[in-house]
Amino acid sequence: FVRDFGGDLCRLPSVLPVPAVRSPAAADTLRCAIRGTRDHGYLFIANYQREIVTRDLPGVQFRLESAAPDIRLIPAAPVTIPADTLAIWPYNLDLNGTRLRYATATLWGRLGNEFVFVETPGVRPEFVTEAGPIAFGADGVATLPTATIRLLSPEAALDTYAQDGRLVRRALPETAPVPVAPVTPLASQTT
Question: What is the pTM of this model?
């Protein structure tokens, strides 16, 4: 993400919700922020806080006051954001001339004319352009007039990387269990 969109991201102002989360212990509050303008940007979502147990947060829908009128609500209907979710949902993203109004999947990167996204666990992927919702094939690919969108599962994304302008899925070797020698406790010292 940073390699392909970091230059754009660093030029965009930060916008925090009102009221903002004031305490790290606020486990029932969704953390979110926008890096963007009225023209385009990225919605950062975090239902995660280190050393705090979070829970699923139902009924989440974002109202973007600064966004173009046709995408004020993301997603179209409220969703549940699962515990421990981290996501970056773009809005008004330029896909080589086709405007992606918004997506409810994390923007992972770009390989030429292919834009790669990762599903947000527990949230139905929703991709909407000016022409309407995008339909994906069984292979997780949608072809637009100006670009291709590839949608990876969270599991596939963990084993995928970009190399020489293409996606590579790391092949995990089949391994036999490694025998482990029993552990002998150290003798306790007495003083």
Answer: 0.79
